[in-house]
Amino acid sequence: MTTTPGGRLVRTGKGTDLVLTRRFRAPATDVWASITDPERSARWFGRWEGDAAPDAPSRCRWRSRTTRRGATC
User: Fold this and answer.
1) Entry pTM
2) Could you tell me which residues come within 8 angstroms of residue 64 by beta carbon, excluding any fewer than 6 positions away?
3) What percent of the chain has pLDDT over 90?
4) Nearest 5 degrees, angle CA 38-CA 28-CA 41?
5) Which of residues 53 and 26 earns the better pLDDT score?
6) How far apart are CA 56 and CA 50, in angstroms?
7) Which one, of 54, 69, 50, lies nearest residue 19 by Cα?
8) Strands across the sheet with 70-72, in order?
9) Most CB atoms closer than 10 Å: which of 16, 34, 39, 63?
10) In the predicted model, what is the mean pLDDT of residues 42-66?
11) Which residues have CB under 8 Å from 40's CB, separation 6+?
């Protein structure tokens, strides 16, 4: 795993997956809750809705800190 945050889109047979790479100094259970609970993850990258399960559809919206432009997935 890299220490530099990164992200990429991966095409699958069912659509496109967003893969984010991060490293945190926190217990895995706390990190998992932070990315699967919409209220907590909103602090990191924006609000989303859907089911936080593998292969489950979801919708998200966030704004770039540098460009202030929004994106929807």
Assistant:
1) 0.50
2) 70, 71
3) 7
4) 15
5) 26
6) 7
7) 54
8) 48-50, 58-63, 70-72
9) 34
10) 73
11) 33, 34
